[in-house]
Amino acid sequence: MATILASSMAFIDGTVVNVALPALQQSLHANVVDVQWVIEAYSLLLSACLLAGGSLGDEFGRRRIFLLGIGLFALASAGCGLALTIGQLIAARALQGLGAALLVPGSLAIISSSFAAKDRGHAIGTWSGFSAMTAAIGPVVGGWLIEHLSWRAVFFINLPLALLVIAISVWRVPESRSEENSRIDWWGGILGVLGLGGLVYGLTESSRLGFSNPAIWMALASGIVVLALFLVVETRSSHPMLPLRLFRSRSFAGANLLTLLLYGALGGTLFFLPLNLIQVQRYPATAAGAALLPFILIVFLLSRWSGGLVERVGAKLPLVIGPLVAAAGFGLFILPNVGGIYWTTFFPAVVVLGVGMAICVAPLTTTVMNSVPESRAGVASGINNAVSRTAGLLAIAVFGIVMLQVFDRSLDRRTSALSLPSGSRVVLAQQRDKLAGAELPADLNPETRRLVRQAIDESFVRGFRAVMILGALLAIGSAGSAFLLIRDKPSAQMTPRER
332 and 428 share a domain? Predict the structure, then answer.
């Protein structure tokens, strides 16, 4: 129960905050780059420290590190709820991501060490099932809290849950640690955070400062150099956080490339969906939170079926077809304009995207596990999990650049045809980095206000379509990586070189 509640908190905060973005953007007077950082700060620390979090548990005690993660997560959640500025919120979200990086790997490790082998599969299945359920209802409950209380309630709700987890853990969860002598890859963890941080900062802030700004290209260059140094350190480390030799397996490399592209498409596009639904389509927060419920349910209900496909047709075919169906789902998101009912606009796209992801999620996991020796399966799963989170981290930064560029050009073209006072044009220019959350100039008459709002909404939709096109292209690329790299040959039949 403790591990289920703890991991559920981390999963919910990874999704429900998207629904809160429009409300906190308005409350804290934030622009789109600021709200990107609300997501990116959490994802950066979680992605870069996830593998190190598992190693810390093995070395110093899984329950101890798990409790430390819960404490950090709860403290950071309180900081998020009490934040008075967007900077304070971003800092608290970073601490929250660090807490999640400690508790998430600890959840599965505690389950594995607390149950006998014959009961372990059932326990992990229960953990997975409840995690999926919380992922489904989290955005809906979060939307209701935002709509009826405040966006701050999304973070404060973690506090009683955290206290309950701590109480159960102290009372019922035994301490455990790895029996193997291992060392923590401190340099790998530090270089991973700095390298990814440099890249994400450069990409995200380029929308605000421009690529010509010295701070941007220096951040990007330093991020690339540090990540290259990270790879060098990992090749020479006796206990690397990221064992690069696993990528000698073509199937493992192909599965992770597929993960990078497909989950990048998913994370980058779905970041903008709640903004579209709430700010442009005028959905209540609860309805926006429920909009992706069919997607989550389809993935949950069909995953067992898609897992059986591996035994019948192998993993390669589902991993080619699934991303192509997902690409069609991204394509359907291009069709809606401003207005229309959910069932004829966004629902078909959500369903097709869900079917596409459901086809490939279980075969992808199976491929990752089967492409490496059994003794390395846990490490392989951790790497794939980190890759999926890193994909969303980088994609939100890149997709934000595309959205802002397309939005700016479209808004310039649409407002140039309107007879706006010069003062109003200045105010509008200052607000455009808030995208559809822009506040209209106060000196406009009702008809002009309507036309300006229409121009802003239609410009956002145009940017949203560009983002979905990019998502579809990445999904098609992920299908190509599966076709070229993934093999259906079982790992037992692989040569050592292939592994």
Answer: yes
Q: Is residue 180 part of a domain?
A: no
CA-wise closest residue to 275 among 94, 452, 378, 403? 403
Task: Report pTM.
Answer: 0.86
Of the three residues 173, 206, 222, the one that is the final residue of a domain is 173
- Provide the residue range defining the domain that includes 455: 243-499
Find the angle CA(271)-CA(227)-CA(370) to the nearest 5 degrees: 75
Domain count, the chain: 3
Are both 248 and 365 inside the same structural domain? Answer: yes
CATH number at residue 43: 1.20.1250.20
Alpha-carbon distance of 98 to 70, in angstroms, equals: 10
CA 212 to chain centre: 28
Q: What is the pLDDT along the chain (499 residues), one digit of tens a residue?
A: 555 666 666 667 767 788 888 898 889 988 888 999 999 899 888 888 877 777 777 677 777 888 888 899 999 999 999 999 999 999 999 999 999 888 877 666 666 555 555 555 455 555 555 666 666 677 888 888 888 888 998 899 888 888 888 888 777 766 766 566 567 778 888 898 899 999 999 998 988 888 888 999 999 999 999 999 999 998 888 778 788 888 888 889 999 999 999 999 999 999 999 999 999 999 998 999 899 889 988 888 887 787 777 778 888 899 999 999 999 999 999 999 998 899 999 999 999 999 999 898 888 888 887 787 766 666 777 788 888 888 988 999 999 999 999 999 999 888 887 877 777 788 888 888 888 888 887 778 888 888 989 999 999 999 999 999 999 999 999 999 999 998 865 444 444 434 4
For 489, list phi and psi in degrees, rounded to 5. -70, 130
AA letter at 271? F
Domain boundary among 146, 173, 200: 173
In a domain, 330, yes or no: yes
Cβ(89)–Cβ(80) below 8 Å: yes
Q: Does residue 73 fall inside a structural domain?
A: yes
The answer to whether residues 191 and 53 belong to one domain is no
Distance CA 285, CA 282 (A): 9
